[in-house]
Amino acid sequence: xxxxxxxxxxxxxxxxxxxxxFAELGVDVIDTDEIARELSRKGQPAMRQIEEQFGPDVIASxxxxxxxxxxxxxxxxxxAREKLQQILHPLIRAEVQRRxxxxxxxxxxxxxxxxxxxxxxxxxxxxxxxxxxEERQIERVMxxxxxxxxxxxxxMVSQASRNERLAAADDVINxxxxxxxxxxxxxxxxxxxxxxxxxx
Length: 200
Ligand code: ADP
Prior knowledge:
single chain, alpha/beta, Rossmann fold, 5-stranded parallel β-sheet, 12% strand
């Protein structure tokens, strides 16, 4: 079983950019968003439970999850969010464990956007938080997704705060600077994780 480093951070903080840099170093990256998308395809066992719980409105015409509708629903209703998590989290967790067991590497990076917000995600041996100022986050989300400042802020308010995330961190990677400044931080952490994983 590979040692698991959980990578988290708010929307637009730089998780994808950073996990790409770890992947360049040969690290196995396990993306829980991607696993969630696979579980929400037509015919997946989770879809039956989702339809029973939320009704046919959240199912797209091709039988997969209507992710936009579901996002709207959980955004406005914490109860719905909790119920969706109860369905998906055990399945995501099991798939992460399967991939960690299948990885031939010393450690793997598990990208979990809502690691701090979610209970039951205790598979990380170590938590790495991507940190940047809220203003940077807003700028990047606006630029990447074409959202307005208010829309970007509304998403951020629904997520853990910068301080809550930092309180959960074993390691922090700062992404207030240029993308080029990330590589040396990633290389240093990579060496650190290899050492930790060797003695785990
Ligand atoms: P996340 O996966 O956390 O949502 P991304 O890695 O996708 O964040 O980064 C959000 C956006 O900001 C992307 O368009 C990315 O290219 C850009 N970005 C990330 N880090 C930097 C940086 N240091 N400087 C400039 N742009 C950045």
